[in-house]
Amino acid sequence: MDKPLTECALKLLDEEYTLDDYKGLVPRWCTGCGDNAILAAVQRLCRDEQLPPEKTVFVSGIGCSSRFPHYMHTYGFHGLHGRAMPVAEGIKMRRPDLNVFVITGDGDCCSIGTAHWIHAIRYNMNITVLMHDNGIYGLTKNQASPTSPLGITSRTTPGGTYLEPINPVSVSLGIRNVSFVAQAVDWIPEMLHDIIAEAFHHKGFSFVRILQRCPEFLDHRFDDWVQEPDWMLLLHHENGVRISPDLAKIYRNQEQHDPSDRNRAREIASTNHPMPVGVLYRDPGMPCYEDLRKPDRLYTPDIVKAAIEEEFDKFTIHPTGHPTG
Amino acid sequence: MNETLSSLSTFHLTGHWPGRDLAAIEQMGLRPALFSAYRDVEGLRHDFPLVLVNGEDKETVFRSLSDLIDDILQEIAPLGIEGEQIRKHVLGLEKEIRTLVYRGNKGTLLQLWEIAKTNRLSRTDDAGREPLDDNLNRAQAALGVDGELIGCDGEAPIKVLTHTWASFQENKARRFAREIEELTVKLSNILKADTMKSEKALGAEALKQSVGSVYEDAFDFEAMSDILGSAFVNGAVPEKRRRRIRAALAALQSQRFFETDGEETKKSRRKGVHGFVFDRPSRALEAFKERLPEMVKLVKAMTIAQLEIEGRYNEKTHDPFFRRFDERFLEPNDLGRFPSYLICLRNGVGAKTEKAMLPEVLSSGLPMKILVQHDDILEEPSIASGRVSPGIPGSQLATMAVSLNNAYVLQSSGSALYQMRDSILGGFKNGQPALFSIFSGLAGASPGPARNTTETPAYLRAAAAHESRAFPAFVFDPDRGDDWASRFSVADNPQAGTEWPVHSFCYEDEDLQKISEDLAFTFVDFAAADGRYGGNFADVPRSEWQDAMVPVDTFLKLDASAAAEKVPYILMIDENNTLHKAIVDVRLVDAAHRCRKMWRNLQELGGIDNSHARKLLAREKEIWEQEKAQELDALRSRPVSAPATPAPGQPAPVPEEAVADEAVSATVEPAPAETEQEGMPPAVSSDEPYIETPRCTTCDECTQINNRMFAYDDNKQAYIADQGAGTYRQLVEAAESCQVAIIHPGKPKNPEEPDLDELVARAEAFE
Ligand SMILES: Cc1ncc(C[n+]2csc(CCOP(=O)(O)OP(=O)(O)O)c2C)c(N)n1
Ligand code: SF4
Ligand code: SF4
Ligand SMILES: [Mg+2]
User: Fold this and answer.
1) What's this model's pTM, rounded to 2 decimal places?
2) Inter-residue contact B42 to B99 (CB < 8 Å)
């Protein structure tokens, strides 16, 4: 619904949000933690898009990364481990006017929260998901996660892990109704910002896996890629992210990839040498669950009250001697 | 010139055949030869009848019965012989329904379906009845839509357009009602929440009432009131805001533009909703002007409501804004949410003053949708109208409207309504003014005993007007791009690329040999089907046919001197299907000339055989040919031993490296190695310390070392804020701890700093 006049009345207010308007508590992440770069990129996005803080909500599960909502001066919901998605879905369902973001970790999303993740892709609600993949459980101090590289030792795998990691991007691409999948790394901030912006602008469930360094428990995990630009593969396309000339000089390994090509996206996603960065897949035509299930009547206070009363009645205990309702 | 020929010429020039009493062609039952296939329109499968579909589906506001039936058969009838029976049964029913409609039966598709089914069943023998009944029931179950069924009669254009308008209106009303409802509920919620927090609502008495009498003994309402009362300390809505909200609510609830039936809004007592269908442009304009203040008030209330709901009404800014707010602030988008006005005019435009209003209305930019239905497009020649040969004044209305450049314009024949459906819907899609100029196919209101004696069905007459370019179809959409090619289209005409549509026509000659001939259908053929013009034709008996008689379309192409030798005719057939040649008088031929010219204009606007383009092309071609000729001459005059130059038209050979280079730059653009440093931020001498800020990952390492020396910029990325605020050692350590290695320490500033040699050596890694 366009509200041209409202927009013009709002413009009169001449409010301009700065980066500081989106800063919440001072982050308590370790120095050198990749989460900082992601926070900075997201705050930049909010500022560039001038998202009203009261119309923006960050939902997270549990983990170092999931502390994110505290650091944003917007609405936030620091939820249960692995359960960020259903909470975000509920919010989007009833308040489609809000900008809903999900912040999750590799443990939060690909371990305990896997079922929710898969179904969230299927629902394809208009939510932007940033999955901070440091390949480890950080908050609980060093346990292997489903994306930990083969052989690393941790508190839960003192003899090293035995299984190959799963690839969250390939998994997402394999699910029916998938509509947006991208991969970013915390150490190329420009691409990180641009990819998150693409994800935000996509109408549908946008899943961004962000490779994130954890110097505390999995230091040097990404050193090869951080130090050797040729180990990276930058994806660009007129319908995806464009690479600035400065960046192009450092990262010479590039591919023009059309995000509507799902098969090529799968091929690209299947390797991390070189490590692809960019928008892998996008289908703007996929319907969103909140649109499919849009209620055709308005929930007035009376209707809501009646529904609550009905629920309460199921549990009402009537004092003895009194007539039952 | 032989004697007969000179009589024919005389008729052509004067309308009199010396010494002969001419029978009027319509009394001989003559019709244009190409009509022979349409003797029984009812029995032909064509677009009509149309179903004016009930319900919301905006894609299919109206559908043709035969289309619907095709869809059903596709769904339920198996391919091949297996599906033969059901196809036969259902198509038979379609035919029955069409006949019913053409015989004047009225009703919805389902109603006529039932009648047709009963008719069919009653004409079927016992054995056939059950499978027929079965098949028709299956088809009916697959139908899925219903709505009034209309034939191509004098009412069709008005009905189709009114129905389309109404169905757009319904959609709009639904959206609008929902918006109003939503605003109302949310605004009321603000007041409700306020009331619930008020002292009164939290008083013991009110609490007691809300619990009800059954359990009142179980509670101490005084205590409850004390506790709840202390829970809400601040937050009462200021009186001024409350008044503003109430005023907005009142305006929302008293709006009269749409019917609303929502829970909240229906509580308000409502004066009648405005009507939007008019039979005169002046009245529609008056109504619009009269309602303008109401519209302004409503838009204002909706905007205030939206701001209040979002909690963003700012009195300092918005009070003065809304005080000044009037109709000048209404944007096309705001207008577009309100109903459009439908103005139906019949038989041309009627009173002169109303006619004069059309340009005003159409250029106003207001949401006025005007239907002009023409029941007669052929004007009889009269000196008073400044004509000595018939004209088509109706078709000038739409071309005039196109020149206003501001309104959506559609011209069509009633027979082509279904074909033009998307364009018709296009005229209703937004709030701009639109003109639909449509020829119904009825004969005109002009008096005269000869009129319409051969009773041509409206569908056929309308189709003939369409076919003969007497009333060509076109669409002009001013919002669609800025050039004629995107805005104007004549594509909906039969054989739009030609002067007249040409059809092959088969007949048997005297020796019973099959002859096939290409016949053009011209304006003259159209006029020949109109009883009023019988006197402009003369049937020439077969024995008197002459070589100098030429078909009208050929005649029209002749220059004056060649034309003087010839007499134009059209082929006609009588009721026994015998072929006749009827010669035509000069007045009709003149009219055909004008018709052809007008069609040429439309064609050019529509980009068909555009004369500017043709001239330009000819000029370019000439220049090109000259150039090539010169090149060839130059080549020929060259000594034979000269190195091979490519022949004209062939590309010169390209050096291989160049090709490779091009291919690379088309995909990736890695810069050549030597320019690597170029553009790197910032371009300073390596003695100065710097950070490649755009690559900073905000990891806090450097700021932890010294947050005065290193600081974050507006994008939260690090730069050297004050080199003097720290030591060279800190610079080097920061460079070493920066994981993306973007800190460059440069050379030490202070020669007194300890361990400089060691530090400079460590810094070398970051040069
Ligand atoms: C139901 C439940 N199970 C286990 C935990 C313990 N727990 C807290 S965070 C965490 C893993 C977090 O890893 P990840 O999602 O990768 O976040 P990171 O800290 O690496 O950012 C676990 C297992 C919990 N809080 N709740
Ligand atoms: S433990 Fe790892 S993931 Fe957690 S804050 Fe520290 S560096 Fe970041
Ligand atoms: S150490 Fe490097 S990446 Fe980290 S904040 Fe400083 S400049 Fe940025
Ligand atoms: Mg993790």
Assistant:
1) 0.74
2) yes
